[in-house]
Specification:
Blueprint (H helix, E strand, L loop, with lengths): L17 E2 L5 H7 L13 E2 L13 E5 L11 E5 L8 E5 L2 E3 L11 E5 L4 E4 L11 E2 L11 E8 L4 E8 L4 E4 L4 E4 L11 E2 L3 H9 L10
Parallel strand pairs: 1-6, 2-10, 9-14
Antiparallel strand pairs: 3-4, 5-11, 6-8, 7-8, 10-11, 12-13
Length: about 220
């Protein structure tokens, strides 16, 4: 299968990161620099065999939102096709890599990969399943996100990408703080994968007269 089920017919499906015209040699050097062992800010690595970088990704499926109370009712969302463990990389978020000069303030799919290096990824006009991730706000029974965005070095393409990760998996204090246990998290098969777009996103939407809820996918 060359494209995932329910992929828009008019939208190019990416199987690797796409470089915009303004991506410079400096950007490329940064993107293709493998994280060094022992670096306190080390970016996690996804091996070339990881299902998170398969295209289409077997861990997820694009589904129509049929719940009338859902902010994105009548649109689409991204759902887990299998159980996903806490802290696990779900998939890479693919799109067009670009610098600040070509950042579109109107795009709902534009994410910073690294602000200091001035490189972002926009999945508005082309991308993969990652672009269908909705925000958790306004969804009945969802008080917080079950996934988050975070960078990952993908060995399949030999570069740093934005990843979609399941939340949880870390340790937290229990009781008097002396005992530790694994924090809850993970995503069950069939559950919608939800992130937080951030307060800044919704503030801009409110300025434009938008509502606090799912985006038009």
């Amino acid at each position: 299968m060359s494209k995932p089920k329910n992929w828009p017919a008019t939208l190019p499906y990416l199987k690797a990161p796409l470089y915009g015209k303004d991506i410079s040699a400096t950007h490329i050097q940064f993107l293709r620099t493998r994280p060094q062992d022992g670096d306190i800010d080390q970016v996690p690595t996804a091996p070339a065999s990881s299902p998170a970088t398969e295209t289409p990704c077997p861990r997820v499926k694009i589904q129509a939102i049929t719940d009338r109370s859902h902010p994105a009712y009548g649109q689409f969302g991204l759902f887990a096709a299998q159980n996903i463990a806490p802290g696990e990389l779900i998939l890479a978020y693919l799109g067009r890599l670009h610098g600040r000069a070509t950042t579109s303030e109107e795009s709902d799919y534009d994410l910073w990969l690294d602000r200091e290096m001035d490189v972002a990824v926009d999945a508005a006009r082309e991308g993969n399943e990652g672009r269908f991730v909705n925000d958790y706000r306004g969804i009945e029974g969802k008080e917080r996100a079950n996934a988050r965005f975070g960078n990952v070095f993908c060995e399949k393409w030999g570069e740093v990408c934005v990843g979609v990760w399941a939340v949880g998996g870390g340790s937290k204090a229990k009781g008097d703080g002396k005992k530790k246990k694994k924090s809850e998290g993970g995503i069950k098969k069939g559950e919608e994968i939800l992130v937080s777009y951030g307060k800044g996103f919704w503030e801009e939407r409110r300025k434009d007269g938008g509502d606090d809820g799912g985006e038009d996918q």
